[in-house]
Write a structure and sequence with these properties.
The chain has 11 helices and no strands. The protein has 219 residues and is mostly helical.
Length: 219
């Protein structure tokens, strides 16, 4: 028989669901406690405030991204790796979409979280540059170091602002769909269009078709 999740784990999961559905600003600790059918005091036994819950969720997100945004050991990159990275980014964005929607507010509200996020951003940018360099060394992309740096930064800007863009064009956070986030991953991929090595173009263009979502489904 499956062991029921502990109260702390239930609080984390319920908070993530509510933040994603309603936006973090619309959800209080009392809402979370009522959703779980527990007393506010029981919630405060595990988390002193909502910021502590958010910090825990960011830690999960941070660990998840750190776990995949790296080069594979002892082998060159392939087109399949490109699919893996893009799909992994999509899954992370979707699962923790409230972080992307409310990022500036969350960081303004918690100086410690803001410091953690800056370090996380630096790691992500360095990891992404290493991966783009890996695709160059594998003969999939043709880019110099300055182009790699610029592409990495442009990709980061799209990835971190895409959910907020969707919220300004689609309405409420609960109306977001995974397909709408998939279009953001597509936007990152097409940034590489001018750098694809001829032997890899057919495979990369097949990936374009796999990730493409019509604009009318987004805005």
């Amino acid at each position: 028989m499956a062991i029921p999740p502990k109260t702390r784990e239930r609080i984390i999961q319920a908070s993530l669901e509510l933040f994603n559905a309603q936006g973090e600003r619309s959800v209080t600790t009392n809402h979370i406690a009522a959703h779980l059918g527990i007393s506010p005091g029981n919630l405060y036994y595990h988390f002193r405030n909502k910021q502590a819950i958010i910090a825990e969720l960011f830690g999960q997100y941070e660990g998840h991204v750190d776990g995949f945004l790296r080069l594979p050991p002892e082998r060159p990159l392939t087109i399949d790796d490109k699919t893996f990275y893009l799909e992994a980014l999509l899954a992370a964005m979707w699962h923790y979409r409230f972080l992307h929607r409310d990022l500036e507010h969350l960081l303004d509200s918690d100086a410690e979280l803001a410091g953690r996020y800056r370090l996380f951003a630096r790691r992500c940018l360095q990891g992404a540059q290493d991966i783009y360099q890996g695709f160059v060394e594998a003969g999939i992309l043709l880019m110099n170091p300055a182009q790699i740096e610029a592409l990495t930064l442009n990709a980061w800007i799209i990835m971190t602002s895409w959910v907020r863009f969707l919220c300004t064009t689609s309405g409420q956070p609960g109306e977001l769909s995974e397909a709408m986030l998939r279009r953001g991953i597509y936007q990152v991929l097409v940034l590489e269009g001018g750098y694809i090595a001829p032997p890899a173009r057919e495979a990369v263009e097949a990936l374009y078709w796999k990730l493409h979502v019509p604009l009318e489904q987004v805005i």
